[in-house]
């Protein structure tokens, strides 16, 4: 099995904002559900404390299953927006424009959660904001992806005072029998079986001004967050894994491209990775291993499509690698986990 990153997968408890109220509104005792994943109501009272991201995801999955709520992630997301991000949310809400807000959100997001990353891509016409779960997490992200997308949509609408029109929504899992639920919750039906959870909108919206922003408060918060910017993300391999996931399908994918995106020389990048006990090849193997698991379990993509998405030269190479990771062929793995 590939190496797992050592950093604990943490997220602020505020990511469960509204959970107690939502469950109680369904006349169910939330304490029972919380206990299933090793949490209790008291832990959820301090919004600035942290829980393991795997616990949060397991709680979403358990709740959805026990209460027969196939869209629980979407439901919980309706309770959330900037309010769950604490000081990062205050900073984002006091930026002058949406562009500055999203740049600061992606810059400081690791303070809220170190088990996932936000990536902002801007081309000539469109902007794409992606939510990338760390490849080392071997948990289902179905409801977690729905929650992240719902929060992202709410956040963009909040920042722009509902002026933004979203071009496309993307989810990494397969669709279900009632996509109209997504239209009702998000305003449109997402594109399913995508590489990551993402929101796409026209570039022109980056210039939208954020109402009631406070420049003085922004300056103060920027200084405060700047002091802890580097304390949550010290391992260069974390940055490299994000770049691998983002550029795996790039025609020039490789260590040279990733080094360029990180503003480093190839030799310097390789030296830093060696210092952290890994190599670029090992990190690519890690990312492929865990994404293969995710695509096989949570999407309806064909095996050949998964092989292509993971940038294998051919299907046979993908099968050999998969058997090395998990001991069985990908077809058998999907069949085993479908029961």
Main features:
four-stranded antiparallel sheet; 50% helix; two-stranded antiparallel sheet; alpha+beta; disordered N terminus; single chain; H-NOX domain; 339 residues; Arc Repressor Mutant, subunit A
The low-confidence runs, each spanning 5 or more residues with pLDDT under 50, are: 1-7
Instruction: Give the helix level as a range of percent.
Output: 40-55%
Number of domains: 2
How would you write the strand order of the largest sheet? 3-4-6-5
Tell the overall outline.
globular
- CATH fold-type name of the largest domain: H-NOX domain
CATH architecture of the largest domain: Alpha-Beta Complex
SSE series: EHHEHHHHEEHEHEHHHHHHHH
How many E strands?
A: 6
Number of continuous helical runs: 16
Largest sheet: 4 strands, antiparallel
Overall mean pLDDT: 88
At the first level of CATH, the class of the largest domain is Alpha Beta
N- to C-terminal distance: 23 Å
The amount of beta strand, in percent, is: 5-15%
Computed over alpha carbons, the radius of gyration is 20 Å
Structural class: alpha+beta
């Amino acid at each position: 099995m590939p190496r797992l990153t050592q950093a604990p997968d943490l997220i602020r408890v505020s990511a469960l904002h509204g959970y107690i109220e939502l469950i109680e509104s369904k006349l169910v005792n939330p304490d029972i559900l919380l206990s299933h994943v090793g949490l209790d109501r008291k832990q959820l009272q301090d919004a600035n404390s942290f829980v393991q991201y795997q616990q949060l995801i397991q709680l979403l999955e358990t709740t959805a299953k026990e209460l027969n709520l196939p869209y629980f992630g979407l439901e919980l997301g309706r309770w959330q927006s900037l309010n769950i991000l604490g000081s990062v949310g205050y900073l984002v809400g006091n930026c002058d424009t949406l562009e500055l807000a999203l740049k600061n959100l992606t810059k400081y997001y690791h303070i809220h959660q170190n088990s996932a990353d936000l990536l902002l891509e801007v081309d000539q016409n469109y902007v794409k904001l992606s939510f990338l779960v760390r490849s080392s997490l071997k948990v289902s992200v179905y409801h977690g992806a729905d929650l992240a997308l719902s929060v992202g949509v709410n956040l963009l609408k909040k920042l722009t005072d509902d002026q933004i029109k979203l071009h496309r929504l993307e989810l990494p899992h397969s669709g279900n029998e009632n996509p109209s639920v997504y239209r009702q919750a998000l305003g449109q039906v997402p594109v399913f079986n995508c590489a990551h959870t993402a929101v796409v909108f026209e570039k022109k919206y980056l210039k939208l001004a954020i109402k009631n922003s406070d420049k003085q408060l922004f300056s103060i918060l920027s200084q405060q967050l700047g002091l802890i910017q580097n304390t949550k993300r010290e391992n260069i391999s974390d940055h490299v894994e994000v770049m691998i996931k983002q550029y795996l399908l790039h025609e020039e994918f490789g260590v040279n491209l990733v080094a360029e995106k990180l503003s480093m020389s190839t030799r310097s990048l390789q030296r830093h990775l060696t210092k952290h006990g890994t190599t670029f090849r090992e990190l690519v193997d890690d990312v492929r291993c865990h994404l293969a698991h995710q695509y096989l379990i949570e999407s309806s993509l064909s095996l050949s499509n998964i092989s292509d998405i993971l940038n294998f030269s051919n299907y046979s190479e993908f099968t050999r690698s998969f058997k090395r990771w998990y001991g069985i062929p990908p077809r058998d793995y999907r069949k085993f986990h479908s029961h």
